[in-house]
Amino acid sequence: xxxxxxxxxxxxxxxxxxxAVKRKCSxxxxxxxxxxxxxxxxxxxSDISNxxxxxxxxxxxRYATCAHMPYLPNLATPKDDGFExxxxxxxxxxxxxxxxxxxxxxTHLGSHLGTGEKEGVKRLVNALNKAGKIKNDVMILxxxxxxxxxxxxxxxxxxxEIFNQLKPSKKFGVCFDTCHAxxxxxxxxxxxxxxxxxxxxxxxxxIENLKILxxxxxxxxxxxxLDRHYHLGLGxxxxxxxxxxxxxxxxxxxPIILETPIDDDRDDFENIRIAKExx
Length: 279
Description:
Elements: E1 3-6, H1 15-22, E2 27-30, H2 45-57, E3 65-68, H3 80-100, E4 104-107, H4 117-132, E5 139-143, H5 156-163, E6 172-177, H6 178-183, H7 191-204, E7 210-215, E8 217-218, E9 229-230, H8 238-251, E10 256-258, H9 268-278
Helix pairs in contact: 3-4, 7-8
């Protein structure tokens, strides 16, 4: 089983490995930089060597690690300056992942800002294909969205439509977020329903393209489009559904990453322990 959570790089990027090991992770996700700004400090030789050597000396499989794009880029934006900055950030992040030996970069798909899904998808595909031409071994993973206003990629049908336009195909995969799927209308509350949802995903996107699973319960109810992650088993999806998802991902050997909150109810340690119990 490869399971872990999003871990902090505070202090230096190699601290991510320490934080993952402390939480008994066998998988993890990071931001390679401050996720709330446009500018990023260049990775130094020591940043890179310390990260790689710590990862190598841990028991964490490199192919169970991923980075996540920062928050500001919007690859579906109609604004030219915003599009160029977003594309540059995407390309820069693939290069940073390549330097660190991280095989996967998860990206949100963006907002068309009221210009319509067709136009938003066109711009998104354009950006992804430009980034796909960069010569490195990093695979860009498209993350399904929660269906918020003006978003693209919330239905498996549209996600598949986007994915099938990307070239070269070996440069792209998918990250499935359980909270996003649930609040965009996919029922994950029982074993049978989980199977049905993943069968539908397979039909439109292809289960072989699913490289990382974000395991999050949902603060809201099914179809509410509220992107608020919650503790495993305590939200709208509930224990039966979350347990079924864990078992499905394990069976398919898909690394599981938690992005659950840290508050008075639970922390990462407790959510990871509960995910292992579900397994």
